[in-house]
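Researcher: Watch the backbone:
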Amino acid sequence: RLIHAIDREADPEHATTMLERALVHPDERAVGIGSDYLETGHPPEKFWKTYRRARAAGLKTTMHAGEFGCHWRNVETALDLLQVDRLDHCYTVLDNPELLARIVDLGLAVTVVPTNSYYLRTLPRAEWAERHPIRRMLDTGLRIHPNTDDPTFHNTSPNRVWASMHRDFGAGLDQIERMMWTGLDAAWLDAATRERLAGAFRSAWQDACDGLT
């Protein structure tokens, strides 16, 4: 599946034009919109009209919000004003226990990225694994799912990301399994595809666990 990416550093009109063109030329593989690139100085409310239009057209929505150095209000705005179906990064929600509890209660999925802070030097490398918010998120009840973000730029892959969740952040097998199912549940798929993948996931997970005994 594909997500139409809004360049949040561009004008809101650019996002609206992009979406309208996408709606004129629909593709069943393109199922939603998201907002990428620099969050600082480009808050979620900048694109509220585009998100409203996307929802009205039946598209799913997500947004990068609450990444490093960006206020948790961006998460709240994405949730309340944009009414997103999913959140990306969302690290600074840890600074607001009430908002955190609300997202947990809603069961909203949050995609997290271990590697971008490592390669972008957001945190000192020597302290990266201990200080990364993902380590705390694992024990909050948030429904998180690890992703690659920019696999080419970050020299990573899905396998490396999953390995990092265990090696660097201490995720146990039960947490890894829970994240795996979160990813499938939060994916924007039709019911038949989800059911087929669930069977494959279940079989592969059992085989992997059997190989550890």
Q: What stands out?
A: The chain has one domain: 2-210. The mean pLDDT is 92.
